[in-house]
Amino acid sequence: MLKYELIPGQLLYEGLITQENIFSPGKVTEDIILLSHQQDYWERLRDLRLSPAEIRRSGFPLTRPLVDRELRIAQGTIAGCHYALQYGIAFNVAGGTHHAGSNWAEGFCFLNDQAIAANYLLSEHLAQNILIVDLDVHQGNGTAEIFSNNNKVFTFSMHAEKNFPFRKEKSDLDIGLPNGMEDQEYLDILNTQLPKLFEKIKPDFVFYLSGVDVLASDKLGHLSLSRAGCKSRDEIVLRTCKQWNIPLQVSMGGGYSVQMIDIVEAHCNTYRVADQLFF
């Protein structure tokens, strides 16, 4: 997608980042993938042997470059975790492939980058109590399924209830929102729920899926946040992590507004907030 080029380009233009802040990941290894995805599914994906029905569900034609892209996205999120442990926060300009379950591809997602990274942190004893905050407009159904029996990872999804996926999985906390919700009501809910979660869970690492498909301009979203409201949403999440001194990895997630400037500016705002709070 064009936004993956425009976002870093805009941040470089503003001087918010330099080339030293940008890294290009390699490919995640099979042993790490298998911490989150079933072996049969992974091998069929790897060998381009998904069924026609599975490919239709994924939304993309299945190709080798596409699989390689998924491998790099997942490794980018893992690398971001290491940077977050060092600096407090790190971003994957792509990622947020939260519809991929342990044995399925769906909604343009084949490998679940934040689930893979969370299980990697647990396996390497780099975290013991993880919170995944998914504020994409769509429920993180794949993430919910992967961690449905894992008490070391708490999944929180706040999404448009009457939107894709139409068969939801059960997160540890789901908040389904009505169509058309605007800034104040959305931010009031988040401001109420997020501190309670931190008090209850006491995470030592947080993943944030910061999809900007919550915007009123988004053609697939069904919510009605302004760009300023979306930025305030990011401020709530990032400020809470900063106050608790919890390292944070951010994957950018969805954004499907008609005007590319709405997508890029909303995503760049997440970086601007991070710069103000962390650096």
Q: Give the strand line-up of the largest sheet.
A: 1-6-5-2-3-4
Provide the gyration radius in Å: 17 Å
Q: How many separate structural domains?
A: 1
Query: Under the CATH scheme, which architecture would be assigned?
Result: 3-Layer(aba) Sandwich
Q: Report mean pLDDT, rounded to a whole number.
A: 97
Contiguous low-pLDDT stretches (5 residues minimum) are none
CATH top level class name: Alpha Beta
**SSE-based structural type:** alpha/beta
Estimate what percentage of residues fall within beta strands.
5-15%
Q: Gap between N and C termini, in Å?
A: 29 Å
What helical percentage do the residues reach? Answer: 40-55%
If helices are DSSP runs of H or I spanning 4 or more residues, what is the number of helices? 10
User: How many strand elements?
Assistant: 6
In CATH terms, the superfamily is: Histone deacetylase domain
Major sheet details:
6 strands, parallel
What is the 3D form? globular
What pattern of helices and strands is seen along the backbone?
HHHHHEHEHEEHEHEH
CATH topology description: Arginase, Chain A
